## 1
Amino acid sequence: MAKKIILIVLFLAVAFFSVSEIRAGMKAAENVTVAEQDAPVSAQPEEGPGQVSQQAAPQMSEDRQTALIMDRYDVWSNQFDSADWFYTITDLDHNGRLEVIAASLQGSGLFTYAAIWEVNEDFSDIAECRDDLGEGGSYPDIITEAANCYHDEAADRYYYLFDDVARSGMAERWLGKTVLCLHDGVVELTVICSEYEVYEDAEAEPTVTYSDGNGNALTKEQFEQAVANWAVSKTMDDYAFAWTEVRSQG
């Protein structure tokens, strides 16, 4: 009889600890689930044999990034208070962090001025991207619905081809084939080739000259082939932009 009582007590003790462990495990699982739902970063990837544990890159959905950008509207929208301008939200460098581009086409010379802001690495704010333009420098004609996007797989960089038209009165016109690349928060603008047209006599045909990005003379045929030559070893695709117009209050 005593032996039976001891066995019953041991059985109940084991059952009690088993239930306690199950409850503790369920509670821990609930905490993990809640933490995963609230966490702004992605879950850790599973480790395989020989792998070193690494912090997973932070992630945020595009909807939440867009909300963050619009929450900072006063930061990036004050570039063009006194002019009509446009903005678009995109991911130029395909790094999973969105950018907002604010741009304005101004003056009879058709100059485009722009600023680009990107969601920062921890998704807590946005930061203005630097560019290699000097004071007063302008962007190519980026306010367009679509552009050719070229991917340099070796360098893992994306380039967007834009026309850049500038005028000086009615007599002079300049057309540049310019690519824009955003990399590590820096906007790089590169002129591949250009065409310069000048009317020296209103009654005569214009004089047209062609140049490469360094100012060296090109023939018309070389000018027409310059973009294709530059794009060798790059893959090309169409890329769409959805611009929203903002009217000046002035």
Note: The first helix runs from residue 2 to 38.
## 2
Amino acid sequence: MQDETSKRVSKLAESAAKMHPTLTGNSAEFAKHIAGLVGEGTLVEDIRATDLYVAWCCTQGCSAALEHFWTSCVPTARRAAFSVTKNEDLAEDVVQDVLQKLIVGTSDKPGTLASYQGRSKLERWLRSVTVRAAISASRKSSQKATTESEETLMQVPAVDDDPELALLKETSSEMVETALRDSLRELDSETRLVLQQHLIDGLTIDQLASIYRIHRATAARRIAKAREALLAATRQKLRSTIQMTGGELDSLINFAQSRVKLSLRWFVATQGPE
């Protein structure tokens, strides 16, 4: 009977790995993970192996799995958090806290994504975790003002003292936003994801290094290169759009840099799960 169960577990693990060929998890090691869950009383038939494989690969630092998780599941978490809190800033805080606890963990406790046992869809499981966290956060903040979110998001950064540059930024603001958003769309998904994880989801360099299992200097370089790629593309678009060079273009690029986070939030809010 034990041999039969082992065969079914191995077959399930291999099938899940084939469903996600871009992920780098070892199917034999994944089979051991499934076997551990079966040993705890879960039936093989009850396990959603493909979702469990994604979650398990995330805990192994697989970049493709983390990208899949962020694009397929995190948007649902954002919607769930906002549906409870009705406050964009508080919802973002909830999602950041949930993601850090799930993926990063703490110095004395690993990320709790490892606790996912594949008994329900990964997206639904994450939604449930987020809703509970959002309810708790809403209760804690019930006495605080919740009307500052939109004003904070839409606040235009202070412009230079130079009135000509101030006018330039004012008249070119829409072009800068368009160039940033178009550049974000054209970035490869891995580059865009690291910007999102750092600027929107609040993961520090050390936390990114931990979840990707790389040196912190490598993580810092990834963030820097992602910023450079976005701004370089934006610069090129602005140069071709408004035929501007030199100091004025540099000033607009500095302005664009101050709008990166806002544009990323727009992108995250408007994209759907892939």
Note: The CA atoms of residues 37 and 251 lie 57 Å apart.
